[in-house]
Amino acid sequence: MKILVLEDNERLLNVIKTALEKENYTIDTFTDGNDALEALDNGYSCFILDINVPHIDGISLLELLRINHKVTPVIIISSNHDFEKIQKSYDLACDDYLKKPFFILELVQKVKKFCKIQNKFLKFNDEYKYDFINHILYNNGKEIELTKKEILFLELFSKNLHHIATYSELEEYVWEGEDTNLVNIRAMIKRIRKKIPAESIVIVKGMGYSLDKNVKLV
After folding, report:
1. Residues 6+ apart with CB under 8 A from 36
2. Residues of the chain with pLDDT > 70: what percent?
3. Phi/psi-derived region of residue 201, left when phi > 0, alpha when psi is between -120 and 50, beta in every other case
4. Which run of H or of E encompasses 20?
5. Which of 13, 57, 79, 176 could bridge to 43 as Cys pair (CB 3.0-4.6 Å)?
6. At 88, phi and psi to the nearest 5?
7. What is the domain-level CATH number for residue 193?
8. Which residues partner with 26 through β-bridges?
9. Is the pTM above the cut of 0.85?
């Protein structure tokens, strides 16, 4: 699961990155609001935003973020204790506001609360299962190698198992915001169907893909 962290204090940024990587999160770090803005659509499952950063502040980024990412968890971290800033952050639907200084364990617990995988395995049948925590696909206990895009595709279903992964969602999350096309998407689906029971991925005509009703989270 990938998290964007915006913090202009590089020492604190490195502490946050190290702590969250120990929890098996993938962390992309930014010290400048402009750079973070360009990366917002790169398939993140959670955002940690400092308010007082160069060029574009964290609250402005939160406002822009909520245009296309209405429910993605956002945690604001800031030394700004002004009530109006805090109120505006919540008005823009941040999930939590953590005042500096804070214990790094406190932030880790917030991330675990708001940005977590409830279940460990995606079970296709008695032979095939995918481990969300360690990003490993198993066939009768034997590991099957997955590409990064195949891993990201499976993780799309970690929170909402039988939702329809639309073409735009695949472009945003699996291709991390890079332009792609139906040919590339279909080629990726074809490859992953060779690694899991092919009937597990269902085509939803004109919309995208879903998982078969027999696939379970356990």
Report:
1. 4, 6, 30, 49, 53, 56, 61
2. 98
3. beta
4. helix 10-21
5. 176
6. -65, -40
7. 1.10.10.10
8. 2
9. no
Residue whose pair of structure tokens reads 């891993």 in the numeric block: 151
**One domain, residues 175 and 204:** yes
Question: Domain ends where: 45, 80, 114?
Answer: 114
Q: How many residues does the chain have?
A: 218
Distance (Å, rounded) from C-alpha 218 to C-alpha 210? 18
Round to whole Å and give the CA distance between 104 and 127.
40
The tens digit of pLDDT for each residue in 5-32 reads 999 999 999 999 999 988 878 899 999 9
Q: With the C-alpha atoms ordered 184, 190, 194, 200, is the resulting torsion angle positive or negative?
A: positive
Burial class (CB in 10 A: 0-12, 13-18, 19+), 9: middle
Nearest to 135 by CA among 118, 149, 115: 149
The reply to whether 19 and 106 lie within a common domain is: yes
| Domain interval for residue 153 | 121-217
pLDDT at 44: 84
Q: Give the CA count within 13 Å in the CB-facing half-sphere of 211.
A: 22
Residues 70 and 164 in one domain: no
For residue range 69-84, list pLDDT tens digits in order.
777 899 999 887 778 8
For residues 22 and 202, which has the higher predicted lDDT (pLDDT)? 202
Domain count, the chain: 2
* Strand blocks (E) in 119-185: 121-123, 128-131, 136-139, 142-144, 165-166
Amino acid at the residue 206: G
Q: Is 206 left (phi over 0), alpha (psi -120 to 50) or beta?
A: left
